[in-house]
Amino acid sequence: MKKAMILAEDFFHRRGGMILQVAVILIWAVMMMIHLERTFFASANLPIQPALITPEGINIGEEWWGVYWRNEKIGTAVRNQSREGGKIFATE
User: Fold this and answer.
1) DSSP H or E stretch at residue 23
2) pLDDT digit string (tens) for 15-72?
């Protein structure tokens, strides 16, 4: 009887480990699919930011500003907008 209990415990221990491994792999696969969808499919549908276009037209060039935290400057940020051919490229 004791041997049967040990075998049952060993079976469930191995079964639990396998279930955990399968769950981790499934979660990883779902996360990779979400990442691929956001990287390759959703980025093509991003709307143009209204701040890029003003009533005077498209602002071409760089715009710098400071980044502050608790009233202390901790860095800078830049937006660069350029026109190449018929396309407008904006990087931040």
Assistant:
1) helix 2-36
2) 777 888 888 999 999 999 999 888 877 655 556 555 556 656 667 788 888 999 999 9
Q: Does an H or E element contain 6, and which? A: helix 2-36
CB 72 within 8 A of CB 66: no
Predicted confidence at residue 52, as pLDDT, reads 57
HSE (side-chain half, CA atoms, 13 Å) at 60: 6
Whether the Cβ atoms of residue 77 and residue 92 lie closer than 8 Å to each other: yes
For residue 90, what are the β-bridge partners? 81
CA distance 19 to 36: 26
Angle at 37 between CA 31 and CA 39, to 5 degrees: 100
66 with 78: CB under 8 angstroms? no
- Per the CB < 8 A criterion, the answer to whether 36 and 28 are in contact is no
